[in-house]
Structure formats: C-alpha cells, structure tokens
Design a protein that fits this description.
By secondary structure, the protein is an alpha+beta fold. It has two helices and seven strands.
Length: about 100
C-alpha cells in the first residue's frame, strides 16, 4: 500500500526544560483543508483494504451488535442544572441529556 506522505514540522515545545517534538501538530486542526485532504487520503486506503476482507459483513454485524447499548456519562452541575452525556447505542458520539 502506498500511504500518503505526512508532513512533519519542526515544532518543539519546552516543558520545564525538556524539549518535546510535536511534528504532527498541524493535524490537530481538523477543519483545515490540508488536514481534511490527508484524512480523506488515509480513509481511501483504509476503505480499499477493508472492502476486500471476506468476513467484513460478519465483523460489521458483530461489532454493531456489541456497540448497540445505551451509555451514560457522569453528571455534572451547570448552574442550577445537572447535565450528563448519553448515547442511545449507535450514535457517533454522546449528546447532552
């Protein structure tokens, strides 16, 4: 497989005298055109691989079955209200309830 090239920047942060490289920080901006193009290129390769798997439909069905259950987050107080996150099962992410 030919993966798309991933740009590396010379970003280094100093944490209490310890230099920490962060060459992929540019990918944190998920709304940038460059990040979206990179993600789409990665997804194209991944989809092509996954679509060739003979057991793909069975795996998909089993994972859907395992992930389809209600989940609730820890409540927190927001002003005079208590709020929590919930997911009914197959939602992409939690929603406030």
């Amino acid at each position: 497989m030919d993966y798309p090239l991933t740009r590396k920047d010379a970003v280094v942060d100093d944490y209490f005298g310890t230099p920490v490289a962060d060459p992929y920080r540019w990918l944190e901006d998920r709304n940038s055109a460059e990040t979206r193009a990179w993600v789409e290129a990665q997804n194209t390769i991944t989809r092509a691989f996954l679509e060739r798997l003979p057991a793909r439909d069975r795996i998909h069905s089993r994972l859907t079955e395992l992930w389809n259950y209600a989940r609730y987050g820890v409540p927190s107080r927001e002003g005079r209200w208590y709020v929590f996150a919930r997911n009914d099962g197959l939602q992409n992410g939690p929603v406030c309830g």
